[in-house]
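Deviations from the work plan: none for this task. Representative record:
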Amino acid sequence: MARFAHLLISGGFARGATRYRDHYPGQERLARVVLPVTLEGRMIVHAIVDTGAPWCVIDPAIARQVGAVAHADYEPDEKLMIRGMLYKGRLLRMGISLEAEQGHSLNIGATVFVPMLRPGDTWPHPNFIGLDGFLSRIRFAIDPAENTFYFGPI
Amino acid sequence: MNTLAIAYALEQLLDAEIYPDIMPEDSTGPRITLLPDVWPGTSSRVVVVWPRSEEGTRTLAGAGGADAATSTTRRDYISVENDHQTSITATSTPIILLEESARAADRRAFAALAEAIDWSAHQPDELTTAIDLALSLEMASLAIELAQLGGRLFPNHERVQRAARVLAPPVVRAVRPPRARGLSASMAWFDEHASQYRGLWVAVREGQLLGAAVSLEELMPVIGEGEDAASTVVTRVL
């Protein structure tokens, strides 16, 4: 059991806790906080916690398979800056769940950016959990000593 | 909108001391004329002189009341003794300023303008332009704020309503017991084996590899549906 699970969960700060990974699969040299998240209740993916990103960003291939592309969306006339590059894409609402290994999981209605790629192109970046689109409405805490991510609703 | 703020901004922009530096030497170069005692909302014309335009010249009526208040962003020209003047309504100028501050990546000015503009006096397309510019400037909170305001102001405008639905604060929908089977084991599998599958999509359930493929579509049959899919960790190894 995570060391502070009882304190944070019984104290009302968090409802769940999960172990996070230090790097995204395939990027072993880049230190990150990587969580397992469920998209639309249909698939678990790795996602980097990024408080510097305004929106969640999901690989368009994944968004297509979980059925998110059928959702009502908003397509800005301007390109958005994602990881230092400008991309056309759509913003849409998606259900994203933080999966708990202790306590309860949390399902959030989040705003997600899904890039538009040219035919044949693959998304070269990880998935991200961003601030304004997700993290701003939860409490979360990190314990690097145990690689534990605590989370709960505000 | 704070009319004093608009007037002050216009006076700063139209400061005649600035323009001598950019006036061309010929007689048809730009010239500034400010109407005396002009306050946005009462008399709606501010006259700015721009270089000659091929579109020809005419003038907008001043103090046009409702007509001026609902005019779209456009520039019209008047020819007076070979000089050319542009009339920009007080309601259209803030949008121009907004676009210019976005082009200059001046987020402070952009935010101040966007928050000060009376969007109920503007067209919904102008609001969506502001939303898109805020998004391009990575000003997500402002984009959300504008979208929510637009949702209230323009209930019948489809694009604004889409923006309001999508650009909303995140919402906690449910707190539930965990459903994914063997999640820890699956994540541990990726820790140990992912580097062997670079560039491939990989699916793992309860710590067991289900398959690896070049495309996610190829993996979908092994991922399955329902509870099986909800317990499957899928990632493209970078």
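The two ends of chain B are 50 Å apart (CA to CA).
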